[in-house]
Prior knowledge:
Blueprint: H1 3-11, E1 15-19, E2 30-31, E3 37-38, H2 43-54, E4 58-62, H3 68-77, E5 81-83, H4 89-100, E6 107-111, H5 117-121, E7 125-130, H6 134-139, E8 142-147, H7 152-163, H8 167-171
Parallel strand pairs: 1-4, 1-6, 4-5, 6-7, 7-8
Antiparallel strand pairs: 2-3
Amino acid sequence: MRQSEILARARRIRAVVSDVDGVLTDGGIIYGTRGTELKRFHARDGLGIILARRAGLKVFLVSGRSSAALARRSRELGVDRLWQRAGDKGRIRAILCTAYGLAPEELCCIGDDLPDLALVAGAGLGVAVAGAPGELRKAACLVTAAHGGEGAFREVVELILKAQGRWEDALRAYRP
């Protein structure tokens, strides 16, 4: 897809829906000595969630797994809704549209692997992270330069805010 079409789609976005393992993390699953699942989140992606929320975008996280670490991180960042043990992510996308009064073209959906195919394919701006399988990359409008767990979410938020002319406003909080 041409950059001009990607930017046109990004201008319409009102919410970001993201998978977790492989997008906000590197996809690795680590268990502590007591069986607790540990996750490593990149601070840049956390800032991406904060920037999106400050700009008025809704942020929804959808995971096929369940994790106390993810619930904690979602609370810390003020995520609008966390959906754990998600089965059919395309169905969840439709439920979110109905519950929040959003049209599919107003959603940016980010994924990393085949379980995210229905989520990404039906979005206004479907995004696959670097390293995603070919089927997901083909369904997506955009493939990030960053891999999951390395700032891919933040990269997408920056693109959206720039397309919407709100990036400079987002930077004001960090400039002297």
